[in-house]
């Protein structure tokens, strides 16, 4: 499944050739596809390893970022995070950096894997609190650590407006785009955040939250790791049931302004996802639609 115009083709033959050339000690291990996201394709290697390959040159910058910062952040966090153990070099056939990580067992956070959603929301809040409180260790909001979700909402205004129009065209009356746009515009009028910059995971959607024995076990995919304002970090809680969302909010003691800006970020990311992936990634579009409907249901219940 190709998602981007500039995507580099990836298949098992390609992965095996990279391993044979650069990691011959692992070349004979079993290899099976372990999933794919908007930015990366993953293969499980043997029982204990994961090969992660970026789809595009832009995504490849995350490889270097994770290799540099995850080993330094891991001891400061209350849940396991990916452990990079090899950085693959670009080749003529695959001209991007790639990674091998330790395999982390677990299931995506969803109904059927989580036992207690309120407890899950509290555990996620604990992880976010520790991440946001971690020493920046000299990192700053520059270069690859300056992803847009750690900035100001107004910086996204020019292109998010076009995404609302795209949603109206594709979804019509199936989604209350007018209310969503009103919430977005109201957030644009709020005071911008002025607190200190913090470490941000950047994409705490359920697919990146691994569950074991019904509880949050690990947080994966730090490709969006950045430094910035924390508001957008909270946006993915609308992907979780209301019990988790309320527990998360209460545990972090978020004020109404932060919550409104987080909700606007949730809207922005979802409408842009629908606009960009409408023809290529229906599962992700469905995830974005579910997030937007959760926001609408939340507003209607207040």
TrEMBL record:
EC number, UniProt record: 2.7.-.-
Pfam families, A to Z: APH
Residue stretches making up the Aminoglycoside phosphotransferase domain: 31-265
MF term (GO), any: transferase activity
EC category: transferase
Keywords on record: Transferase
The keyword Signal is annotated on this UniProt entry: no
Protein name in the entry: Aminoglycoside phosphotransferase family protein
Source organism of the structure: Nonomuraea indica
């Amino acid at each position: 499944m190709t998602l981007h115009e500039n995507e580099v083709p990836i298949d098992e033959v390609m992965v095996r050739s990279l391993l044979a050339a650069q990691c011959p000690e692992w070349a004979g291990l079993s290899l099976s596809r372990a999933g794919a996201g908007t930015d990366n394709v993953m293969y499980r290697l043997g029982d204990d390893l994961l090969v992660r390959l970026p789809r595009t040159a832009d995504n490849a910058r995350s490889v270097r970022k994770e290799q540099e910062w995850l080993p330094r952040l891991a001891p400061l966090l209350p849940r396991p995070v990916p452990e990079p153990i090899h950085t693959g070099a670009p080749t003529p056939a695959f001209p991007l950096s790639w990674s091998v990580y330790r395999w982390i067992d677990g299931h995506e956070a969803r109904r059927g894997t989580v036992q207690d959603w309120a407890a899950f929301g509290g555990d996620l809040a604990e992880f976010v609190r520790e991440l946001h409180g971690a020493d920046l260790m000299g990192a700053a909001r520059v270069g690859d650590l300056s992803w847009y979700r750690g900035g100001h909402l107004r910086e996204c205004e020019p292109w998010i407006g076009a995404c609302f129009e795209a949603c109206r065209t594709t979804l019509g009356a199936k989604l209350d785009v007018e209310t969503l746009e009103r919430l977005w515009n109201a957030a644009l009028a709020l005071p911008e955040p002025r607190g200190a910059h913090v470490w941000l995971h950047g994409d705490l959607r359920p697919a990146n939250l691994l569950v074991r024995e019904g509880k949050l076990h690990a947080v994966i995919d730090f490709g969006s790791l950045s430094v910035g304002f924390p508001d957008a970090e909270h946006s993915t809680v609308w992907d979780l049931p209301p019990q988790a969302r309320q527990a998360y909010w209460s545990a972090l003691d978020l004020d109404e302004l932060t919550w409104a800006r987080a909700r606007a970020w949730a809207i922005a990311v979802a409408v842009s996802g629908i606009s960009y992936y409408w023809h290529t990634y229906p599962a992700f579009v469905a995830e974005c639609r579910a997030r937007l409907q959760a926001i609408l249901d939340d507003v209607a219940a207040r």
